[in-house]
Amino acid sequence: MNSKDLIVWLIPFFPLLGAILLGVFGKYLKNYSGYLGSVFIVISFILSTVIFFTVAYGHSFTSTLYSWIDASYFKVNVSTTVDRLSVIMLVMVTGISSLVHIYSIGYMKDDKGFARYFSYLNLFVFSMIMLIMANNFLLLYVFWEAVGFCSYILIGFWYEKKSASNAGKKAFIVNRIGDFGFALGVMLIFVNMGTLSYSSVFSGIHLLPPYLITTIALLLFAGAVGKSAQFPLHVWLPDAMEGPTPVSALIHAATMVTAGVYLIARCHIIFSYSPDASNVVLIIGGTTAFIAAFIAMTQFDIKRIIAYSTISQLGYMFMAVGIGSYAAGIFHLVSHAIFKGLLFLTAGSVMHGMSGELDLRKMGGLYSKMKKTAITFIVGGLALSGIPPFSGFFSKDAILASLFNKGDYFFWIIGELVAFMTAFYIFRLIFNVFFGESHADKNLHVHESPNVMTIPLIILACFAAVFGFIGMPPFDHSIFYNFINKDFANSFNFSPAVNNYPWYLLSTVSVIAGLSGIYAAYVFYIKKSFDLEMLKKRFKTVYALSFNKLYIDEIYDFAIVKPMKNFSVFLWRVVDSFVIDGAVNGIAQWISVTSSKVRKVQNGMLMSYIFTLSVGVIALLAYYFVR
Amino acid sequence: MLDLAQIYNGYYLEKSLLSVMPEAVLIVFAFLILLAGLFNNPSKNSVNSYYLALIGVAFSFLYLFMLSDHTIKGFYGSIVFDKFDVFLFTAILLSGFLTILMSKNYFDTRSVLIPEYYSLVLFSVSAMMLLVSSINLIMIFLSIEFMSICAYILTGYLKGESRSTEAAMKYFVLGTFASAFLLFGSVFIYAATGHLSLYKIHNFIFEQNYNAHYAYNLHTFLAIGLILLLVGLAFKMSLFPFHAWTPDSYDGAPTPVTNLMATGIKIAAFGVFIRVFTSIYSFNVFNFYNILWILAILTMTFGNFAALLQTDLKRLIAYSSIAQAGYILIGVIAGGYYGISGTLFYLLAYVFMTAGAFAIIIMFENLNLASVNIKSYSGLGYKYPLAGAAFSFFLLSLAGIPVTAGFMGKFFVFSAAIKSGYYWLVVIALLNSAFAAYYYIKIIVKMYMSDNNNNGGQLNLSNGRNSIIINAVNTNKDSQSYADNGSGKTALTEAVSLKSAAPALIIAIIICLIFTLILGIFPQPVISFASRSVTSLWSI
Amino acid sequence: MNVNVNDYLAVASIIFCIGALGVLIRKNLITIFLSLELMFNAANLGFVAVSEYLNLMSGDIFVIFIMVVAAAEAAILLGIAIAFYREKGTINIDKANELRM
Amino acid sequence: MSIFLKYILSIIIFFPLLSALILVFVNKKAEGLLRNLATVLSLAEFAISLFLFIYFKSNTYEFQFIERFSWIREFGASYFLGIDGVSLFMILLTTLMTFVSLLSSYKYIKDHVKEFVILMLVLETFMLGTFASLDVLLFYLFWEFMLIPMYFIIGMWGSGRRIYSAVKFVLYTLAGSLIMLFGLITIFILHYNQTGNFTFNLLKLYNTNIPLTLQIVLFIAIFLGFAVKVPVFPFHTWLPDAHTEAPTAGSVILAGVLLKFGVYGFFRFAIPLMPEAALILTPIILVLAVISIIYGALVSIVQKDLKRLVAFSSVSHMGFIMLGLFAMTAVSVDGSVLQMINHGISTGALFLFVGMLYERRHTRLIADFGGLAKKAPIFAALFMIAVLSSVGLPGLNGFVGEFLILVGSFKQYTIFTIFATSGIIFAAVYLLWMFQRVMFQDITNQKNEDFKDMTLREIMTVLPLIFLMFFIGLYPDVFLSRINPTVVHFVNIIEHNKYAYNLIKAKMGLFNA
To answer: ipTM score of the complex?
Structure first.
């Protein structure tokens, strides 16, 4: 094991160590657990940076720790692959994790589950790192589930709240539905390829018949749909906001939910060989982007709005990878991670200042009271809305340009529409929270958060502001593209993200969409030029659809959950207790009834005994003569 | 070793005597007991006759052992002493021995004539042995009657107890009725073949089988004869529908006598049936096998069904013994070397498990702890852990659970039947033993797990059968109450402890326990013994 | 008149059946025993006839044994009947129904 | 040492019986002594059984530690012991679970302690004997007597309808095994008819040539015996009752070891003895297995009683094992065997936790709990690990086994596997929902306010299991490398017979229409 390998394995090791130490000894560490947890992650981050440069100026490499499963012809190792895609993800994940950890020290200060919280969070970071570093599908699947599990325990962190524990459970189960497909995909790969390691699978996938490739791709995508909260499995993510806000920032915005995009980028070769599957990805991405933005426009819970925004932005990424513009997808993934993490953390800061209040109707005019938070939030909002020069502009623009360039004009239009809606709902939020008059409880002491929380915000805001420049349009000439595309260059139907088009025109359209969204929000919520109530009444159906999240939860409840429960009750009460056990007990009953009748033969009367005996004799004689 | 056969070689009468030596010894001792009863102090009677009986059995064993290598025919070919006898004599003598061990304690508390009892037991044991060694219809009839008459008297031995008398009466009428069939069957066989000796009949049928000119009416005579003979023997084996005497007389008889009937008489009946079967029925004239396996199925099914809801332990074991007879019959039907040795093994196993169960029943009866009703057994398992465990073990053996003699016996018999192609018979028998397990387990449930909480700790004096039946222990079955060192016990039951049970009874239980276990775990010697003894059946 | 051994056996069978019916129908213990004796004697008749027909001795010997046994049985029966009478005040077998099921 | 190793199997089998014998002479009032002694002796037994693991040669499928003595010459039965990779771990599982369940019952078993510990040790002997015997008669002897101690354990220390459950357990399994006995005897006789030798030597009986029709009949007979034990779908109804009413230790042994006997029986007896029939009936059995998986899971969802829930989850899990076994690929059978160990550990642990809940609150109804995590964090954490192991979370043991089963079965039985895979969703549904209602949310029932966290003894009880969950999850190779040669051999036998089977199929036109 050389130093490179050692460093690679130390990256996940420290968070794991942290998780175990904090989990077991957390009770004794008290407040130090926060620092300890953060330190481990920061070390990890530093090591990741080292690896980043090793790969950036060197080659990608693989490293094997040990043979995990060796059952006959099924062999899987615990090993990693470190290439450009994974190092970018690594740095992003460990970086944001570090900030979130530090932020959490302030945010979770008085929580009695302080140590437990950091233990979980470290465990999550470990799992996420391993997910990124895995070099075979099974290991990927393992940590795919592991991050899901971490998400489950973190969402349900405040388990006393029924809603929180419900949300955790829901997240886990919905993810499992996706993983069901994912697992089948992994099995299908194995039975057809005889191996699960990335390199062998990718180099041999083209030998399979197309329908099989498509099936595999779609099954893998099912996993991605679950994890990345795409329609129709997006329902868990808004509920996941029951967890602590830093968790939402880290897991449900920046890292875990993007794993689906990472998965497709990682398996781009499989998807490249299957245009059908790629189209499905595109369609699902577009649908999700639109639906989520549509729902986000009318919600009142600030975290939920951001959650829907996350879903919508993930939709963008899927559109990107769906058309084969993997670089753009990953670029948006990273920049989204930064600004969405920022948005969540600032939302957390708002909550912290407002003593846990989340309803934007009860806020307003916070700008003056918590300036740092407000400014960083607005930076995040601008980035999300795609206003230059913030990072979101560049990354979203890269996707939209790719869509246009590919000729998918319909999805380009949807993309622009969503850009408008995005700008509208995020500024609706900003205007309602930070501007206008305060609707907060008068007794509430609104205060700015401590430095341990605001400093990470500022760092993130800076990144959100400047990160985009590494993806300067035209995207296919940018630093980021050139860096990452080495990994995607071997992709079969690779469509260059951008090519000979008036990029400035397209960018202008996007900017206009964003700005008009902001303006619309300004008109509605600052100038109040329209009577909102009247509008709501006029577009009652549309409003109701949006406000009730398209009734998707209700439909699931009605069409799946309830019937399944009833069916289960039926199986239990009728099939199990009545039919099967009834048959068993029925036999017993029959025997006992028969027995009570048979006993009557022995009635104590000598005459009847003699009679039975004689009948026996006659029967035997009859047997002989009748025979 | 003194070799009697050598000494008496050449003297016909002496040789005849030699062939019945074990029986003769018993009869001599039976008379000795009677004589001793006359001259002895009545208070010592019980002790003396008890020991005399034991010594008699021991001497009989001794003679059996000394003669065990020989085959002796006597009394003009009506009696044979061969290896087959050796095995069954052992079983019968053991049954008698165990019965005597059980009797002492049982009759100590009851006012009956003791010497006569023991001599009757010895008489009936010798009759059983005679029956097994009979190879002539006259001898068979005589021994059956000898055995039965003793059994009738023994059944009604509890003077002044109506159940005992009733049992004797029913047993007598039914027994004589069945004997009449046996006799009449003999007439027809005699008419058809002209012989009364089993082996001559055997040879006759063997030759006639190939003779096309065999007259029709003789054919019919033989069939009627065989059927009626079967009825007579089936009665003694208590096969359905000739079983009717079994539950009633088992129930009414004194428990040691019940044990003797359940073990000794059954063995003797099966022993003679095997002799008759191998010499006559095994030709499968008139498809006799069909009758037999139908009888087997009916018998075991009836026995199990009737036992299922039974609450009287003695009756329960009576019905179970009917069912067991069905299983044993399978071995006979399977026939051949393998089937018959299986049957013999089963019979010996049956002695130990049944006698063991009866010994425990007597023990509880004598300790005045429990009537023979299952209800009164609740909680006994805790109070007497060892007795309870032993009883459970015997019951499991009867149910045919492995590690017990019962399993090995069943296994032996069933595999023989499969070997002979009786698949369905075995399947039915196995299903039967599955649900038969229920009523055995029911008793164990009562002993260890019963949870009906009626009449807690209250004394129940009832004059059921001359003995005071105290339902003291059957009271609070909740296991809880026994745990805290007997707060639930009454003073009376506290006083009566296991130690007051007669040592003889405990010896009997231990013997049964050990043999049930050995036959279940290491049956090799017994199986060889049985296999060796079977060979003589065909070698005469 | 030429009497065949079959005829003797037929008569014996009829007597046997009469005896069996008697056992089945009668309720008096003594009568039942008489019927049983009838059955035994039917067998005796059969044995004697066959023995005569086949010119053998064994059947006759059997008959003698049967007669002895029957005598012994009679003694036993009387004992039982007396005991039964003491307890029930009757020798009607229907009164014996304590043992059942 | 060499003598020790030569007779190690006998020593392992009869050491518990000897321990029980020692305990017979301990005064029944000295409950503490009885408990400690029994626990220590069972721990010693576990330690002895570890020697098997150490000296086990992992690169061969041949039976090892063979002991053979003539037993009943007339039947050709012998005292014939030997283990391969599969029975090795079953034996280790048995010794471990017995120790764990004895340790778990310090508080639960309050009365008749002496009887209890003796029965547990006797039970252990018979379980071990069943796994180690290579003689069919010997196997059956151990197999069936095993019922009796278990029956007492359920009936004497159970709760609620314990007698009903105990009797149902015995009669149900007895009926099954008697039918099985019929099958075994028939094969024994067939072998005699073919060779003229009576033998119960399993390895020789493997060579019996059974006509196909008879083979199917016999397979069904033997199937019934084993299927009841597993239990496979329509024969499972004894299980919820027995599990629910049994004391914790009983449930642990029942789930941990007893259920394995069914699968082990298929592996060791039914399939190798009648491979062609097994192949022909495979589709039917797989259907039953898949029904078990989904049915057990669905019924679990709506259970109100914790133990009943875990019991039904067992039905579901055992369905996976059956699927893996009957898919008959090396990977799936590997997975099956591993999953047998896993199920023992995970479900055993779940029963331990449910038992602890019951000890504290004297109820098993899910509705009576809620919010316990706050009061008992250690309990919550360890319980959660057990639940996740049962859910099949990667990194824990359940995943490895389940995945191997599924991936092994996938190629040939795609549809079945897809349905089976859906079981992983349901597992999450019923277990997490249960966990949420028991451990999470607010305390609604005042009685839960003074819920005590785990004591040191209780932690010690579950710790070995928790350790194994992680160990198997992270480094299953220790197990797989020993199981694999045996399994590969097993699959080779089947493959060999598949050839014959295909010939028969072609000849008979079976399934061609």
So the answer is: 0.87
